[in-house]
Protein 1
Amino acid sequence: GDEGLAWWCGWRGRGCRGHGDVQRPLRALRALPRSLLRFAEASSGVQNRLLVSLCSPGEAVMVNKPVDSVTVPGTEGTFTVTNNHSLIVSQLKAGVITVRDGQESKDYFISDGFLFFNHPTDGSGCCTAKISAVELVPTSALDKDRASQVLSELMAAPKDNEWDRARAQLGAALIQQVI
């Protein structure tokens, strides 16, 4: 309801007048026939490709981009998904995601997150791979020298209590993936 949406967007107690204006278009979209929505999705002309979405709380790096494959760092090991892969939901660990399309590839660092792979819901033959990440950064934007410096500082810091030891262990594991 409106109260839940008001809480979600942080307007509660700040003079929020409700979200009737937001809810009205949502209700209108729900009223559209499913066949019309499927037609709109299929009309993009993309057939039998993997549609990848890479998102973090701060931004959507790509949304339904047609690609050949995506390689992700799963908690049980690195794996690659292509169109028509079996259904999967996988937890991801810190590492590099590689998105390949033809001869091009683009790498992104992920701190952790999830991969949701689904089969087509329309006649396009396009499966979807949606990656929801806590942090997602192109590897080209990472400063590996700075990461090495932070790792040295982290390892040299005192580890007098359990918190310090855990912080050093987790931080080192994360930074090793950047380096």
Note: The beta strands are 50-55, 60-67, 69-74, 77-82, 88-92, 95-101, 104-110, 113-118, 127-133, 136-138.
Protein 2
Amino acid sequence: MIRSQATARRVVRSLSTRNVDWNAPVFKGDQDVASRVTQFRGWVAQAETMAEQYKVAPAAIDFAAAKKSVRDTQLIEALEKLYTSGAPPAENFAWSAEDKADKSAQIEEAKASLAFTQEMIADTEKEIAFMKANRTTRETSATELAEAYPDVAEEIEDEISRREWFKDTVAK
């Protein structure tokens, strides 16, 4: 039984590391994200180490050997009585509803952010394709430039009508 659990744990661990590319640029682009990923990976490694360490029940305490090596046997007897009579309740962790709701909200926020980022990537790719198709050269006329970039042409016309000749120059 224990052997199959260890095997299952090993398989899950190898699959989880195979499915997540921890060296992906998304984990290294932002220092805060990189720090949190490193912290999470450390926590996972510590949890796995502790799971391996505590997977077997602890050995029974040898009170007879302790009585032989300690002068105050009454202390050992009291500890033995406490050990045999005490039955602490099992410690069960329950994920609180508010923490669960908070994490769900963070996940939804991340999904919305991802959708927005994907939309921005698509828009940027369209803009790059447009700019590649409408490159300006020395032979590009002002009319062709105005047709390709109407917002720039409108701004230029407004500046001319307001007589702002040197608005975009370095030395004002």
Note: The chain is about 70% helix and 0% strand.
Protein 3
Amino acid sequence: SCYPTPAPTAPTAAPTASPTATPTAQPTRVPTGGCFASDFFSIVSGAGTCVTSERATCISDGPGNYGNNERCLIRVLKTIPLEVREFVTEATHDRLDISGQSFSGTTGPQGVTVRAGGLISWTSDHSSTTAGWTICIEPYASCYPTAAPTAPTAAPTLSPTATPTDQPTGVPTGGCFAANFFSVVPGGSNCVTSERATC
């Protein structure tokens, strides 16, 4: 009763770390689902001259230099913008005609939008061949699914650590001195008290 125990200090909870969101994966250049061959290009004639590549999201005059007197006709099945990967033909003579526009030399149909049902026609003359052309569909939103973002994982909350209760010291407080425990009777001069009369 002479040694009051200090009130225990309330434990302090460790701060909870903020969860870190995982970045959303970017779409790749390879489409999925039904976004292949017959979805965009249909070779009407000249299948041996014009070929598809990259899972039929691109069409070209074939590998290497194109040949003389080539002819092919391609129908576009969906409204799509075009992306030029390569375009080098004999200017004015070897040309790509797209929905009424002619392209030759080094000026390709970059960014040109072809409506569904539109035609792409390739024609080369009897001389001077070059590297040729490759055109593709620009990234087509419905064909390039974006991976669902991964839900952030919350950092585990650390268990609070209790602060140990201070132990009472050897010094009493309140009315816990001299007469509470020992009384030196008159004549007992050889006896003394110490430690604030607790000894």
Note: The two ends are 17 Å apart (CA to CA).
Protein 4
Amino acid sequence: RESKGPGGGPLDVVSCFKFKHRLDILQEKMLRSLCHKDLRYVLRNYDGTRPLKEVIDEALLMDPPEDEPTLAAAPHAPGVMSVARYCRLEIIDPLADCAVFGDANLSFAVNLAQHRKVLGHVGRVIATTFENLDTLQERYKEIDDTIARLEEYYAEVHHGVDCTRIAIDSRFDGLQG
């Protein structure tokens, strides 16, 4: 079965789409340059009966549908990366909470909170750091802005958390799975 598919290592959505529709390298390049909204439109609407460029031009004119939040999520983000993230996160219950432990400058937690919001996920995001806030402010000039961004996404931020002792940390009482 694998011998009939595209070869050459790891595959993303564009590589698979290129193989399925027998596209050339220039068409692949056009697809890779699309934003999330436009790439999702092309993936849904291109069937090989019309030129790819025509479907891409049509996608550029379309507004993201308001009734499907995942199709409207991060419409102007890079397409290939956003579709890949969507494919990984769609298996996560949008009501589930998530915790990020030991994220020193909290950049991963911000990206996760932002991505969950645009996908319509409503569960809590809990972000922790091992260091206390004073230490973080010395190391990372942007930490106060990062914390403010997390709070805009209604994330909880806790400092001085030792993940090896999380079960006895009173700040996390009642949060067991």
Note: The first strand starts at residue 98 and ends at 100.
